[in-house]
Amino acid sequence: MEEANKVRLHGTWRSPYAKRVELALKLKGIAFEYVEEDLNNKSPSLIQFNPVYKKVPVLVHNGNPIAESLCIIEYIDETWKIGPRLLPQDPYRRAKVRFWASFIHQQLYETMLTVMKTAGEAQEKAINQLLEKLQVLEEGMQEFYPDEVPSITAQNMGILEILICCLLGPYKLQEQVLGIQIINPETTPRIFSWLTAINQVPLVKDSAPAEEKTLALLKFVRDIALKSSSA
Amino acid sequence: MAAVKLLGAWLSPYNCRVICALKLKGIAYEYMEEDLLNKSPLLLQYNPVHKKIPVLVHGGRSICESAVILRYIDETWPENPLLPADPYERAVALFWIKFADDTTSSIAMMYLTTVEEQEKATKECSDMLETIEEHGLIEGKKFFRGDEINMVDIAFCSVAHWVGVIEEVTGLKAFEPHKFPKLNSWILNFKSVPVIKESLPDTETMLDFFKGRREMVLASKSS
Question: Does B88 contact A at CB distance below 8 Å?
């Protein structure tokens, strides 16, 4: 197979990490082949391309594999200097964006996962932590959007939009399944406007799986969590 | 030239990463040692989110998180680049820096855990070393994926310098030179670089400190 200039993404529709890369590629208008991996039956390619973690996403460009979604997104931004810049040019602003990218990636993603996968007291604790961390992000947004949250389009979406979108884009469905409020327009008005704006971008809407599919997945994850906690 | 300040703690490998980078680039800086049990108002002001060191302050503006600081230093002072120029090689380097961020805490865990959890911590550390040996280091290259010292080497300074100390203090064994020959060579190469030698904290001082604190750590776990 002709590998020169070919871009292939190994992912799964269930993975928000794979979704990040998918969005980055689409925002840049990069043509790519998509391989849906079955994580219970990983392809030999995936294992060969990501021997350290054996996880999605993996981007393969010119036959060269890159793993870890944040590393992939920076690679995409540097290699294709078309479309929106996913990170700012100025080193200090880049540092701020990387700091908050790390915060959303490490703090929010992990805590959200705990909220989804636990029950009872453990879940209550995780929910409190999530809400606290969202407050931290709310204040932190003043660093990268000191005035109003700008109107978000496919031309100005960046890495932070991608990260928050892949985690909390479907927040209404998550709230429905969990039976809690996660995004409160009064206590986190900036995050609320931000997510609302991102969710209205046509490219984001078109890339999201059908609501019923997402809902079914969330319910499935919750059911397992509830079963294992009462076992 | 705007002033550069580093808020750090001598014992921290994350702090050491930043010192290595500053010294490799020949950047003059003022160092402020933080007492982590009594954090300064300055630290709390410059890193309100995590309240942790290291924090780099450049022209009065703060940058937090050692991996973020390393990128900032490399981009602001581009001479003697610490990352490859080729975007693909750079992506691979960033992968390993992230791996270091995600797994080197297992070294501290060997020290911070008591008997029941120590075995698990030691295994995690050993698995990490095995991964670096098998997938990270290239035969014949002096440093990580190259013949010049770079950001990935710096990111793994805790492997080069803290593992031995923690092993001696705890009596646990994660690193066996004969099992990890490439890693063994890398450690020797890394520690022979004069700038790195200057940047690493003194081994004897580290041993004294860790041994001295060990009782307290173990006591706090059993209460």
Answer: yes
